Structure formats: structure tokens, C-alpha cells
Amino acid sequence: MKTRQLTLLLCLSFVLAGTAASAGSTGPAGIGTIAYGEKVKAKGCGTYSAPALVELILNGDGTWVADAPFGEFSGTLSPADSKGRTWNLVFDSGSLALYEAFLEEVATELCETPVNVTGIQFSAFQLKFAKDLSEVAVQIKSAATGSTAFGAGSGSHGLKGKGVFVPD
User: Fold this and answer.
1) Any idea which fold 26-167 has?
2) I need a surface site. Which of 5, 129, 153, 155 has the fewest CB within 10 A?
3) With contact defined as beta carbons under 8 Å apart, do 143 and 114 qualify?
4) Of the candidates 74, 111, 69, which has an alpha carbon nearest to the alpha carbon of residue 91?
């Protein structure tokens, strides 16, 4: 009798855990491939621009992973509208450090001297979906401050792209 009760209790706990995980899930899930163009400007040093592709994986739990030419980025997403078609993206700490390293590398090439990024402000970091979720657009706009052996400076990064999205 005790074995049967224990088995029933274990089964019930698995069902409740699955329900809790489903109730806590948020956001669209699926895979997208996005073609984008980006531009990095380092004030007084020049501009870098290039097209590229990124593979984006959205998990139903509100997390995302993007495999881009500079590395693999990840983080969380939160709704930006009531229709569920626009989502704000946030880097996790490791990805924010990788993004900062990307900006430093490009600015160092443009300025021909080592650049240390000291601050980043995002004015946009969003995904927008078509009504049927078959297409996704991404946009990043950021401004950065930094320093070199010659003093302080500033720059910006913009990325815009569109692609197909296959929902789970």
C-alpha cells in the first residue's frame, strides 16, 4: 500500500511540475534565420558596416540564443506590446561582455589604437513578428562611451534585419 501511495505521489508531483513549468513559460518559441546589416561608428575614427546572417532560437521559457558571426549571444525576452508581436531582448551578463568586446574590437580597428568601452546604453533591442509568426525583424540601437590612450570618446552601433521564423 505504501509503495502505491508513493508512486501516486511521485506521478502527481511530475504532473504539477510540468504544469508549473508550462504556466511559467512566456514568449514565442521557434527558430529564425535573419539577414541583417550593421554599422558601428567611432566618433572621429570612422565607420564599419557589414551584412551578415544570424540564427535565432527562441525558447518558450522567455530565453533566446543567437549564433552570430562574432559569437553566440543569449539572454531573456519580455513583451513590448499587448499583441505579443514585439519583444524586448536583454543580454545575459556573458553576452553583454561579448557584445562589449565586439564593440571594442571594431573601435580599436577604426581608431588604430586600443579602445576600452566604459558604458553602453541601448535605445532599442527588439524583435517584431509578422501576424502569423512566419517572419521576424530585429533591431539594435546602442550608444557607447570609451577611452583610449588619447582620451575619452563615443560611438554607436546599429543593426537591422529581417528573416523567416518557424514557430515550434
Assistant:
1) Porin (2.40.160)
2) 5
3) no
4) 74
pTM: 0.81
**Cβ(160)–Cβ(36) under 8 Å?**
yes
Three-class secondary structure assignment of the chain? CHHHHHHHHHHHHHHHHHHHHHHHCCCCCEEEEEEEEEEEEECCCEEEEEEEEEEEEECCCCEEEEEECCEEEEEEEEECCCCCCEEEEEECHHHHHHHHHHHHHHHHHHHCCCCEEEEEEEEEEEEEECCCCCEEEEEEEEEEEEEECCEEEEEEEEEEEEEEEEEC
Place of cell 514568449: 27
Structure confidence by residue, pLDDT tens digits, 112-162: 999 999 999 999 999 999 999 999 999 999 999 999 988 999 999 999 999
In this predicted structure, which of 15-19, 37-41, 111-115, 158-162 has the lowest mean pLDDT? Answer: 15-19
Handedness of CA 40, 62, 69, 167 (dihedral sign): negative
Answer whether 17's CB lies under 8 Å from 118's CB: no
Indicate the Cα dihedral angle 74, 129, 167, 89, nearest 10°. Answer: 10
